[in-house]
Amino acid sequence: MPMVCVTDFEAQARELLSKSTWDFIEGGADEGFTRDDNIAAFKKIRLRPRYLKDVSHVDTRTTIQGAEISAPICIAPTGFHCLAWPDGEMSTARAAQAAGICYIASTYASCTLEDIVSTAPRGLRWFQLYVQLDRQLNKQLIQKVESLGFKALVVTVDVPKLGNRRHDVRNQLDLKTNLLLKDLRSPKERNAAPHLQMSPIDSSFCWSDLSWLQSITQLPIILKGILTKEDAELAVKHKVHGIIVSNHGGRQLDGVAASINALTEVVAAVKGKIEVYMDGGIRTGSDVLKALALGAKCVFLGRPVLWGLACKGEHGVEEVLNILKDEFHTSMALTGCRSVAEINRDLIQFSRL
Ligand SMILES: Cc1cc2nc3c(=O)[nH]c(=O)nc-3n(C[C@H](O)[C@H](O)[C@H](O)COP(=O)(O)O)c2cc1C
Asked: What cofactor is this protein dependent on (predicted)?
């Protein structure tokens, strides 16, 4: 049977992956309340379509941080892609390049950054940083990503401590062993990729440390994991270049708002001064449209990319991206939007929110 929507990939990935890998990808923190809410919140939003507009040409292209992408649908950082497909992040990078969208490589990528770049040299890439305790290590890593042509540094702020993932504890999942077995093949490679060693995240990192980060890189800095207007205002004050509204796919603090519900507050607080993106619960093209109507410049996908990878590697990721792009195109046409710039808040029925 053909796979026609993102949830078809989810169902097949579930059959193909081991229980512990499935649980690792799918799991939320604690009771999984926020993880589920990310999806449910989208379904509560209703659209207000406009008709009798010429939608014979619909253009899904847009820009993020000045770079053009074929649609506002990009790839969020997720670790350990080799758990889902043998050459892991290399497949993801090729699919992203083919789709003409941005791929954020994780600090916990299971392929070396050199391999990710050399397999898809023309792709637009950002690097996600979990700030490491060892400041020198951060510096080395940032210098490396700069020299490899990554275009932005995405600093994840919602993991001062790892959330409580019950499934992983029950399954006794040991990602360190997994990474070391699969990907740290030789001492030479180990030295070439210090980020693979899962050194401790710096839980003392705070707003005043951002200037240090800014002093060691020319790259635009994007904060991932902001959920409140207070932090959004601080982000603007500290001169970062963008925000990803995110609750880490419900994997960190259970009980926080669905990302799509937090988006409005953050967008209002930044007053257009920096770009705002979001991730969490995007499963259809109309979800993308809703996020853009509420002020996101672009959305990022976490689990759907891993499902695509688990089903068919690079081609699975490409299919997932193409399905969402096609659905987004349809949603634009059916709401009367010919360009991404025409998507606005009038498309949302606020009386039902
Ligand atoms: C298996 C998995 C691994 C993840 N690893 C990272 C990571 O290394 N760094 C990070 O900032 N976020 C990580 N995330 C969070 C994602 O970037 C993103 O916020 C989330 O998956 C979006 O929700 P979605 O899965 O509903 O699309 C991970 C998420 C999953 C599901």
From this structure: FMN
The one catalytic residue in 57, 241, 248, 329 is 248
Domains of the chain plus CATH, in order, are 6-350 (3.20.20.70)
Q: Are 104 and 74 in contact (CB under 8 A)?
A: yes
pLDDT (0 to 100) of residue 200: 78
Partners of 224 in the β-ladder: 156, 244
Residue 248 bears catalytic tag: yes
Give the pLDDT confidence score for residue 352 in this predicted structure: 58
Query: Are 46 and 271 in contact, with CB atoms under 8 Å apart?
Result: no
C-alpha 162/C-alpha 346 separation (Å) is 39
What are the DSSP calls for 109-140, one per residue?
A: -SS-HHHHHHHSTTSEEEEEE--BSSHHHHHH
Q: Dig out the tokens for 31 from the structure.
A: 């009771």
Q: In this structure, what DSSP letter does residue 224 have?
A: E
- The pLDDT score that the predictor gives to residue 327 is 98
The response to whether residue 280 sits with its C-beta less than 6 Å from ligand 1 reads yes
Local structure of 154: helix, strand or coil: strand
Q: Check the annotation: does 167 bind a ligand.
A: no
Q: Would you say residue 351 has pLDDT above 50? A: yes
> What does the pLDDT look like over 156-174, one tens digit per residue?
999 999 999 999 989 988 7
